[in-house]
Design a protein that fits this description.
Elements (H helix, E strand, L loop, with lengths): L5 H6 L7 E4 L3 E5 L9 E5 L11 H22 L3 E5 L15 E6 L16 H12 L1
Antiparallel strand pairs: 1-2, 2-3, 3-5, 4-5
The chain binds guanosine-5'-monophosphate and zinc ion.
């Protein structure tokens, strides 16, 4: 646990939050400034700065928990869809540097957008990127 980290304190119960789920390794809380009704965050109780630091085993458990939470929340909230979002580093929009996964219920006409401006790429450009990643 990092004593300067707000999510360490929340995950470990030192600072209160609206908890939707808790087990030995994780706490799922409502986001204080939600994108939509029910916007929640999965927090590991151990401090990992981001996805790069997350152990494989924890990463697998996070995805399994995300699926379980999305299923329950969809049933209970009656939302029409769901976004899973996870930001790493400032350039990608991370503001709290303790790994977390956003669970964002989506509703018809919720007036929110999780989007990007699509780039135009030729097949050659795509091929060059593929090579850069895979070779
Ligand atoms: P990020 O931008 O790092 O991916 O997301 C951080 C999220 O944490 C934001 O959606 C923000 O509203 C939420 N957040 C920041 N501080 C607190 C807090 O003290 N309590 C809760 N429940 N959420 C927080
Ligand atoms: Zn932390």
């Amino acid at each position: 646990m990092d004593h300067n980290c707000i999510f360490c304190k929340i995950a470990n119960g030192e600072i209160p939050a609206k908890t939707l789920y808790e087990d030995e390794e994780f706490r799922v809380i409502l986001d204080l400034a939600p994108a939509t009704k029910g916007h929640a965050l999965i927090l590991p109780k151990s401090h990992y700065k981001n996805l790069y630091e997350l152990p494989d085993e924890t990463a697998a458990k996070v995805m399994k928990l995300a699926k379980k939470m999305a299923t329950t929340m969809t049933e209970k909230l009656g939302c029409d869809g769901f976004n899973i979002v996870q930001n790493n580093n400032e350039v990608a929009g991370q503001t709290v540097f303790h790994f977390h996964m956003h669970l964002i219920p989506r509703y018809e006409n919720d007036n929110q957008r999780i989007s990007w401006n699509p780039l135009e790429m030729t097949q050659d450009e795509l091929e060059a990127v593929k090579k850069q990643i895979t070779e």
